[in-house]
Amino acid sequence: MEIPKSHPRYESLTYRHKLVSGLDAGFVAKAGLIAHGRGEAFDYLLGEKTTKSAGLAERVAVAKLLLAINPVISVNGNVAALVPEEIVNLSKILGAKLEVNLFYRTPEREQKIKEILINAGAGKVFGAGVARRKIPGLDSERGKVDPDGIFTADVVMVSLEDGDRAEALAKMGKDVIAIDLNPISRTSKAAGITIVDNIIRAIPNMIKLAGEMKELDKRELKKLIKEFDNGKNIEDGLKEMCRKFK
Ligand code: PTJ
User: Fold this and answer.
1) Percentages helix, strand, coil for the chain, rounded to the nearest 5?
2) 18, 141, 160, 185: which to mutate for ligand 1, most atoms within 8 A of CB?
3) Number of neighbours of residue 229 by Cβ within 10 angstroms
4) Taking the domains of the chain in order of start, what are their residue ranges?
5) What is the homologous superfamily of the domain 52-245 according to CATH?
6) Residue from 17, 43, 78, 99 to probe ligand 1 pocket by mutation (most atoms less than 8 Å from CB)
7) What is the pTM of this model?
8) With pLDDT > 70 as the criterion, what percentage of the chain qualifies?
9) How do residues 221-236 score in pLDDT, each as one tens digit?
10) SS3 for 227-241, per residue?
11) Tens digits of per-residue pLDDT, 169-203?
């Protein structure tokens, strides 16, 4: 269905349709539509804008990824539907690997998402059709990861998932960055850097920041990370949300 550009919710409807098309094409999980609806509700509370606290978390996340030795960006069905070109661009600027990692894993979905990323310009895509290692203590399909990707990464960025993976990755000693519009989800609480923003804004923001911060001295990047308090930043974000009601 063609959405008229004059519709007041044109942008929001366009992203909904990207997910519905992804479902029809067989790479978005049915539950991905529900997850998106939950995200939309939180985004409403943010005024559908990147808040100050989210902007700070995005800056710190870019610093962390620039300093990482083996960073990996995890991609699921919703991410592939919403920001395929952007996630590939970000991975290239940061020198980060891309890994397909799915909760509702099927070989077909894995392959389709890999193809989407390759068509969007990715070189190697990890996690699809390989023998996997298990994240200790995580029994879901999401716990099966590429030995050359997430399993051996030092920094992992996860998006649009609410579960126990961030916790399990942190227990493995990895630094976890999460993009999640729900500031009180398990993932948000378990991550070391939590970006409470819509992925459709967060990734373009991070691409811009990475371009600007790439030339910064390592000491400056480390200082940014040292001064960042994730718990306080989440609280600041919650306060920003509450202020919208006043
Ligand atoms: O593709 P698969 O098989 O890996 O499955 C994907 C889903 C999304 C079903 C899976 O990862 C999942 O478990 O989703 P949840 O538990 O519903 O959690 C999704 C979280 O992402 C929620 O906290 C939402 O608020 C948040 N979210 C949804 N859309 C966005 C978002 N956060 C940022 N940007 C969004 N666009």
Assistant:
1) 55, 10, 35
2) 160
3) 10
4) 52-245
5) Phosphopantoate/pantothenate synthetase (3.40.50.12640)
6) 78
7) 0.96
8) 100
9) 999 999 999 999 999 9
10) CCCHHHHHHHHHHHH
11) 999 999 999 999 999 999 999 999 999 999 999 99
